[in-house]
Structure formats: C-alpha cells, structure tokens
Amino acid sequence: MGTSLISVYNKLNGVETHTSAALVRWSATGLMPLITPVGGTCVPWVAGCRVKIIDGNCIEASAHRLKELRAVQAGALPGKALVVFEPAYGLVTEVFPCEDGHAQERSLFGTVLETVHADDLWMADRNFCTCGFLCGMDTRGALFIVRQHEGLPYESCGPWRSAGRIETGQVAEQQIRVWDAQGTAHVFRRLRVKLDQPTRDGDPLLSIVTHVPRHRASTKRVARLYRKRWTLETAFQHLEAYFHSEINTLGYPKAAVFGFCLALVAYNMLAVVLAALRSVHGAETVTQEVSSYYIAHEIAETYRGMMIAIPEDEWRVFRTMSPAAMGATLLELARKVRLRTLRKTPRGPKKPRPKPEANTKRSHVSTARLLMERKASFVTP
User: Fold this and answer.
1) Using one digit for the tens of pLDDT, what is the confidence trace for 215-239?
2) 202 — alpha (psi -120 to 50), left (phi > 0) or beta?
3) Which of 201, 228, 255 is the last residue of a domain?
C-alpha cells in the first residue's frame, strides 16, 4: 500500500509517549521468557532481589527543521526519558518518557514509584536521592542503593564505623534518619568511601544511602554493587553507537521519543541473542570477548538480503512457537556462530587528553593548517 512521506511523518508525530513506553514494556515482557529457558540469565547481584538500575537520558539536540526552531540558535532538545535496566536479563524493562527536554527528571519520580514492588532493589545516581523517592521505596517494601545528594536532609543516628577496604578505597558506615512528607521517620544506612583516586568530578569521597539489610549485603558488598550502576551508562552508549537511538532530524518530541523507544526494543532483541550465546559459549567468554557492535553490524548488513532470499511464509513458523521451542532453536543457532568473527578489537591503555587551549578571539580553526603544522614539525632542518 502506497503512502506519502508526509503521512509517515504525521503518523510519527502523533504517537503518544505512553504508547512508545508500552512498546518497550511489551518487548521486555515477551522476551524475558526466552532468556530464562536458554539459560542466559546472569548471576543475581543480590539473592532474592530483582535488581533494577534507573537513570535519565536526554535525547540529543535535533536539527532546526521545524519552523519554530529556525530562528533559534540554541540546541533544541526534543525530549528525555528515565530508563530502567535489569542486569539479570540484560533487558530494558521500563521507560518513562517526557516530551519536555528541559523538564527536571524528578518530576517523573511519582510515575516511577507506581511501578515499585516489594523486594525490588533499585540503584540510581544522586539525582534520585530525595526524601520522597527514598521514603517511597521504603514504604513499598523495596530496597535501594543510591548515591547521596548533598541536598538530602537527614539526621545522624550514630558515629562512623569502619567497614574495611575495597578495591577503590576505605569504607565506613553510619545510620541516618530521614523524614517523609507526612513526618514519618525512616532509618537508612549511609556509606562513605574514601577514594584512592578522585572521581572524574574531583570528589575524594563517595557517599551512598541504602536500605539493604546487612544480612543480605555487607557494607563492602553494597559499595561494590554501586560501582556496577555504570552498566546502564554503557547501555546508553551502545544505543547511540549501534542503534542510532537519537536521530537529530526527528524534531517533534513524540517522534523523537518513539525513535528512542524503538532503539530500546532493538537493544532488547540483541539481549536475547547475547543470552543464547552466553548459554552455549560461556558467560565470561561472551562478556569479555564478543563485540555487541559486530553483532549489530552483522544483523544490519544481513537483514535486507535475508528478506529477499527467504520467502515470507518461511518466517511464519516462529509466530506459533512456544518459548521452550524458540529457546531450543536459539541454542541450535548459537552453536553455529563463529565467535572469532565477532571478537572485540583490543585497545591499548588510555592516554590522558591534553587540555585544549582557550582562545576567545578565534571561534574556528582550520584542520588542514593544523595538519600541515604537524607535518612540518617532523621535517628536520
């Protein structure tokens, strides 16, 4: 059926953000039963807890294609979203989109709390460290590991107690008391890690607030777990590098959010492929040696030819397959994958970046002239 390009754009501009969010949730719900039977789930970080990492992602500035943006010099932000990642499955299970690119992430916390269940373990950065969010988690029976925000009001319940040392520094702990909007007090654990090396922001100390009982995770265990929060940051990098999740020509907020959510669905599909590979070739081998970029590139390069070479009727068998049958098929295909063609390219140690020279008189620089100067420096007089 033929259609005009403007009709496609109009359709994208009319997709509601809650529809895009439901698409991501639907994909995770459908794919999770495939990962379990193939044995591709990762080792639980905390026994008996469903770990969820949440972080915000602001969609990058779009091109000034809309009439309202053509006279604006500043970058136009078409939206943002809070994304929930479950490391046990490698899936993005929830997304909370917002059309206003300048909206504060905390304005979405109420919607997030509606999805919290008992025995969830939520991990987040310091922007999520508010009285309402932490106490809301506690009220719902959920656990959390959140970096402390300097604006969090609290009362110390005791002195610091040393908890020993981890790989990045010395750890100590104390109890604190935080009050919710109704005046009810909640007692949490506050951890302090005196870092051997400051963070990239120059902080010598790392403060963490948690509600995980000691019998489920020791103080040092909690400090180590927080370091794994960067798993979601890595997922954001993969989304942009492999799936082009932020298309700068999609200026309308609904269209930009829909494009981002489609990339999340594709990321979840890749998680199923990685789960099958982990089950057959070993979790450590796949995690350390297999490149997700090469897998995504292989799929993108092969897809068009597959759609031409394989008739549509041949794909219908997968629609009626049970999760067990589909899992068995995935394992059979995973055994035929040649991992050597998908191995990561090793890189050398990172070199410190030279600090760029500040020059307010020159807003641009000629790349060709810089290269000529570099070439001339190698010529001996």
Assistant:
1) 888 999 999 999 888 776 777 777 7
2) left
3) 228
Q: Residue 357: its pLDDT value, please?
A: 67
Name every residue whose Cβ is closer than 8 Å to that of residue 342 and which is 6 or more positions away in sequence: 290, 291, 294, 295, 298
Identify whether residues 198 and 262 lie together within a single domain: no
3-state helix, strand, coil in the chain (%, to 5): 45, 20, 35
381 Cβ contact partners less than 8 Å away, ≥ 6 residues apart = none
Strand partners, 333: none
Last residue of a domain, one of 213, 228, 243: 228
Q: Tell whether 92 and 54 lie within a shared domain.
A: yes
Mean pLDDT of the chain, nearest integer: 86
Question: For the chain, how big is the Rg over CA atoms in Å?
Answer: 24
Q: How many domains would you assign to the chain?
A: 2
Closest CA to 222 of 312, 135, 319, 148: 148
- Given the DSSP bridges, would you call strands 120-124 and 50-58 parallel, antiparallel or unpaired? parallel
Whether residue 46 lies inside any domain: the answer is yes
Tell me: pLDDT of 245 over 70: no
In terms of domains, do 224 and 133 share one?
yes
Task: Supply 258's token pair.
Answer: 């829909």
- The tens digit of pLDDT for each residue in 287-346 reads 888 888 888 888 888 888 888 898 888 888 888 888 889 999 999 999 999 988 888 887
Residue 315 lies in a domain: no
192 and 281 assigned to the same domain:
no
What is the domain extent for residue 148?
Answer: 126-228
Nearest to 62 by CA among 255, 243, 241, 264: 255
- Please state, in angstroms and rounded to a whole number, the distance separating the CA atoms of residues 221 and 215: 11
